[in-house]
Amino acid sequence: MSQLPKASLLIAPCLVALVAACGGSAPAPPSPLSQVSQASAARVDPTDDDLLYLEEVHGERALGFARAHNAATETELVAAPGFRALEARLLSIYGSKDKIPWPTVHGSTIFNFWMDDEHPRGLWRQTTLAEYKKALPAWTTLLDVDALNRAEKESFVFHGATCLYPRYNRCLVRLSRGGGDAEIVREFDVSKKAFVEGGFTLAEAKSTVTWKDENTLFVATDFGSGSLTQSGYPRIVKEWKRGTPLASAKLIFEADSRHVRAMCERAFHGGHGGRHDDVCTRTIDFEHHEVFVFQGPKLVRLDTPDDADVVLWNDNVFVRLKSDWKVGEATYESGSLLITKLASFVVPVLAPVAPGLVTGRSFQVLFKPTPHMSLRAFEGAKNKILLHVMRDVKSEIVLFSLRAGVWGGAPLDARDAKAGAIEAHAFDPDNSDDVWLLTEDFTVPSTLWFWSARTAERTMVKKNPSFFDASNMEATQHFAISKDGTKVPYFEVGKREGSAATRATRPGPTLMTAYGGFEISMTPNYNGVRGAAWLEKGGTFVLANLRGGGEYGPPWHKAAMKDKRQNAYDDLVAVAEDIIRRGVTTPKLLGVMGASNGGLLTSVMLTQHPELFGAIVSAVPLTDMKRYHKLLAGASWMSEYGDPDDPADWESLAKFSPFHNIQRGVDYPPVLYTTSTMDDRVHPAHARKMVARLEARGHTPLYYENMEGGHGGAADLKQRAYVDALIYTFLRSHLGLMQ
I want to staple 367 with a disulfide (CB 3.0 to 4.6 A). Which of 299, 300, 337, 700 is the partner? Predict the structure, then answer.
């Protein structure tokens, strides 16, 4: 499930765990659980209430369920020929010392968090730009997380650090026990490479904490009874002074318990001598939020539609619209990006007006969507603006400069024709208009470039190694026609079209993945594990761009929200049927895998279209759409799916809720469910209950629950390689991908 929206629009990390399969094997032995399943079929079908014990995350009975199923799944998959070799290959890719150390620039310093096979929990470290450009930079380790875990007998996962502008010498380090969203926070002294004795610390919670100044924090955390929303996130924000107890911190902002969360932060204006605004955001739900600015002691609401993305930058306000907005005589289209001056944009909170009624405000439209183009992300450098635009899901970068008071845009240099995906990020937005460029494609490893604003030239800085042989592979784009006539794009990756090798192996094993939710776009990407474990062995990979995502902007997302949710599922069916029609594969050779909202997607495929697939993997999924809003962060997703307690919404949800649509006597394809005990975002009970009901109705799913890992399913590289090896071994054994 996607992270909560922040006060900036950035490229969302891909939330789908892309999987692959490798090699052939003898038929897998029957699962020991098959006997349990056969016995279950003779018993009375357990009711929803009978399975509520599986919602007790650490309940002994629930953990016993997980351990028993883990043992059975491991007995079947770990013993399969090639499993250990595959696991070792995946770990070597995840832990490669030749991969790009992704940089974060703070002033003259490059920070990086690094994980490899010797440091599975990772090193937080720093270097200079001059060193970073070398083939083998000299790094200074700030924090060794593995050593910290040994010293404190903990299982911390590093979740990042928020450092103090402009010197970045003090940071708030976020550590999660086991990888869940809940974190502890500790103040860290970069110069001393140590936690600050007596410094700021927060107990474990789903906190948001940011610097106001060296001695003051904005803190949104669990302050005790009544301080959290129904989604389990902080609803109040306090200003906490150094040296005082947290209990005495001053309340400055709050949200309603029915909202998702509240947060505050200090937004600095790059290149403007440290000028800043204190900004607070009240997140009503995933689609709606209100943004406030402190003007002196007065709290001022930005007069924007509450479904717009709003970002402050250099005395300006960006407004990215998710619905049409009428301002005076002008109407701005959904999906557009507007910019105006902050000074002309605020109205006192004590005298609110309806959005769009304030006059005398001048907007410039930086981006307007077309049927084929959408805005994926935007970002400010010191004095320039970067737009990440997609044209039929293919990336373009546009750089805007201010001339005579008007912003003008032009394509940024991106000459690598083989790169299907391009990202651009401000190099050091406080001090520079230079840009990091990242290029990659399904078969082309990621390359990091430095683009100079002064010379308009780019220089290659780092490149990932080739983790698989792609010499005879290509990626092509196709369009399927969904049930209602909508054209749905998808990418296909495999042997070159028309080659003798392609003709000889088609139809062949094919693996699909998709997401289709929360306006998250699925774009071309280089995945070494997928390539080594699936593509290199002769399999075909398909990435489907379903409605519900952001590939064509807000309308594409809204087309699969709430009562329109079935559109996303129909889109995936259309892609599956199209690749079968084209002779790429057959139902028995077609697998589908998805995670989180994508796990809900694949579970719906299991119950709605079992005839289309030869194997299904559902990772950290939602499955019980009757109770999802009562489990962990589920209440925050009702704007996406609907409210199960509303009869009209439940009528729509009931039609696809996988847990409620399992039938006896249906020939379901082999299915593997994976989750994590420590997933405190999507409750592990979704996967547990789905498996329990499948078994009770005579089916034999496989199930693996990692005891750590959070929503990512694994807490370190070794766990990731092991879980992925289970997944890929399952897929290869059922889809006939031979070594």
Answer: 337
> Phi and psi dihedrals of 308, rounded to 5?
-90, 150
The share of the chain scoring above pLDDT 90, in percent, equals: 83
Task: For 302-349, write each residue's pLDDT tens digit.
Answer: 989 999 999 999 889 999 999 999 998 899 999 999 999 988 776 544
Question: Residue 346 has what pLDDT?
Answer: 65
**Rounded to an integer, what distance in angstroms lies between the CA atom of residue 94 and that of residue 71?**
25
Q: Give per-residue pLDDT as tens, 699-727.
A: 999 999 999 999 999 889 999 999 999 99
CA dist 564 and 652 (Å) reads: 8
In the structure encoding, which two tokens stand for residue 295, read together?
Answer: 């003007």
CB atoms within 10 A of CB 113: 18
The pLDDT tens digits for 419-431 are 678 999 999 888 8
Q: What CA dihedral angle connects 295, 299, 303 and 305, to 10 degrees?
A: 130
* Nearest partner of 245 among 186, 194, 202, 196, judged by Cα: 202
Identify the DSSP state of 547. Answer: B
Q: Residue 225: what residue type? A: S
CA distances from 223 to 39, 246, 280, 282, 607 (A): 48, 9, 18, 17, 43
What does the pLDDT look like over 671-707, one tens digit per residue?
999 999 999 999 999 999 999 999 999 999 999 999 9
Q: How many residues does the chain have?
A: 739
Note whether 189 and 219 are within 8 A (CB): no
Q: Which residues of 131-159 are buried (b: 16+ CB within 10 A; e: fewer)?
A: ebeeeebebeebbbbbebbeeeeebbbbb
Give the three-state DSSP class for 732. helix
> For tokens 């490059």, what's the residue?
110
Specify whether the CB–CB gap between 82 and 22 falls below 8 A: yes
SS (H, E, C) 636-659: HHHHHHCCCCCHHHHHHHHHHCHH
The DSSP string of 46-84 is PPTGGGGGGG-TT-HHHHHHHHHHHHHHHHHHTTSTTHH
Enter the tokens of residue 11.
């490229």
Identify the pLDDT of residue 499: 61
Q: Is 632 helix (H, G, I), strand (E, B) or coil?
A: helix
Q: What is the dihedral of CA 260, 265, 267, 273, to 10 degrees?
A: 180
Please identify every residue annotated as catalytic.
596, 711
DSSP 323: S
End-to-end Cα distance, the chain? 34
- Alpha-carbon distances of 290 from 259, 263, 349, 364, 734, rounded to whole Å: 11, 11, 11, 22, 49
Tens of pLDDT, residues 127-165? 999 999 999 999 999 999 999 999 999 999 999 999 998
What span, in angstroms and rounded, lies between the C-alpha atoms of 511 and 533? 11
Determine contact, residues 638/258, Cβ cutoff 8 Å.
Answer: no
**Mean predicted confidence (pLDDT) in 413-424:** 72
CB 1 within 8 A of CB 596: yes
Token pair 């010197």: residue: 167
Distance CA 282, CA 246 (A): 22
**pLDDT higher than threshold 90 for residue 561:** yes
Contact between 306 and 288 under an 8 Å Cβ cutoff? The reply is yes
For residue 475, the cross-strand partners are 493
CA distance 529 to 547: 27
SS3 228: strand
Neighbours of 577 (CB within 10 A): 16
Q: Is the dihedral of CA 649, 17, 714, 122 positive or negative?
A: negative
Task: State the DSSP H helix or E strand holding residue 484, giving kind and residue range, or none if neither.
Answer: none
Rounded mean pLDDT of the chain?
90
